[in-house]
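In keeping with the milestone schedule agreed at the kick-off meeting, the structural modelling team has produced records for the first pair of proteins. Each record is given below as a sequence line and a structure-token line. The laboratory manager (R.T.) confirmed that both were archived under the project's standard naming scheme.
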Amino acid sequence: MTRAQQTISIALLLSSLYLAAFLEIVPFPEKVQNEIVPVIPFWALVSFGSYLLFKLGWGVFTFNDVPEAHKELVGQIAEARKELRAKGVDVGED
């Protein structure tokens, strides 16, 4: 099973479970049904966004811990500056 198929399968499973709860096919106490179940999609979206923001921040924070990637990026920047200077663009100091 490919990663895409696995992701789609999990999304369909979670959607089915939520739909069963939302349509009251699966019985929950009245308070849970009226106050918690309707906000689960919003909570999931906020949680997923927070997770992605954390992963992005952690990647930026630990970027210098990857010497090969840092060296490659610095080389690409130097190459881009060289090409731009050859075309007459002022790119500032190194």
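The second protein of the pair:
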Amino acid sequence: MAAQATESDQIKQFKEFLGTYNKVTENCFMDCVRDFTTREVKPEESSCSESCLQKYLKMTQRISMRFQEYHIQQNEALAAKAGLMPGTSL
């Protein structure tokens, strides 16, 4: 049963990843690709798409860090409220 839950979670995570990947790809494509008269990717299109992806990755990393900081603060506040933190008393 636990193996099924893990497999189900992995499938869910993979679907979420694919959804995010598709959104980023579409957004960067729409922002960067302008010329459909040639099969070649122009240097400015390539550079734009790389910058777009880098910006997304940095933004995702920053949000993740802030999310972790927030949860640490929340856990510390709960522990202090319960009197579990050293140096705190009620």
